[in-house]
Amino acid sequence: MTLTLRKFDPLLPLVGVAVLVAVWWVATAAKWVDPVLLPSPATTFEAFWKGMDGGRLGFDFMKTVYRTVMATMIAAVIAIPLGIILGSSERLYRSLEFVIDFFRSTPASAMFPLFLVLFGVGDETKISVAAFGAILVILFNVAYGVMNARKTRLLAAKVMGASPLRVLIDVTLLESLPQTFVGLRNGVSLALVIIVVAEMFIGSQDGLGHSVFEAQQLFDMPRMYAAIFAAGALGYALNLLFLLMERSFVHWGGK
Fold first, then answer.
1. Which of 187, 214, 219, 249 has its CB 3.0 to 4.6 Å from that of 134, i.e. a possible disulfide?
2. Contact present, 238 and 228 (Cβ < 8 Å)
3. Domain of 218?
4. What predicted TM-score, i.e. pTM, was given to this entire model?
């Protein structure tokens, strides 16, 4: 019996989805909420399907994907080397810890005016402010991973005569990869949030954030919920992608 039930374990995440859709359907069928404000699941999914199948939503979805991926790539290229350098020198990291934590704790939305002055209204502003937020998250995690590389393995490599460069590449970097991927997952999630918010309020004519805001202004609730659903699905897919990459490349994590 137990073995039979375990076969359905991969389907467990769908249980929460089914419960959510069921509650949503009951709420709309019983008119607990005004149907104008909360359309039925069928109406919303129809709007989602039509929008993604050659409609405007599909175009907005791809624009948000492009901006999020670009911001994350820029953040990774900058933050990973800097994180390695800072993590390799605890004194250097401690001397910059306040600055890193200060900007990491500053809401990225508060930086919008500064980036608007620097880059104007356009993709550059949205991507750069998202990259800025993601850089700090990735940087912190990479530095933390390097600083907490297992001392026994580092000591063993040094005893065996490995050069500092070999120790850095073959031991420290590999040991820090699990924490690096944690930073990348958090970074891409934060980048998506910032991009969507920027698309709402920084003179954007496309993107999921613009689609949500425009639909709300026009009181097109099915389209608004469809855009929200698309943004959530994108965030989940990006996080899952990095999680699968981590499991593929960091199979030794925790061992």
1. 187
2. no
3. 57-249
4. 0.85
Q: Is residue 27 part of a domain?
A: no
Q: What tokens appear for 196 in the block?
A: 């969507």
Q: Burial-class residue 219 by CB neighbours within 10 Å (0-12, 13-18, 19+).
A: exposed
**pLDDT one-digit tens code per residue, 41-95:** 888 899 999 998 888 899 999 999 999 999 999 999 999 988 888 887 778 878 8
16 falls within a domain: no
Of 182, 151, 163, the closest CA to residue 80 belongs to 182
Q: Are 137 and 101 in contact (CB under 8 A)?
A: no
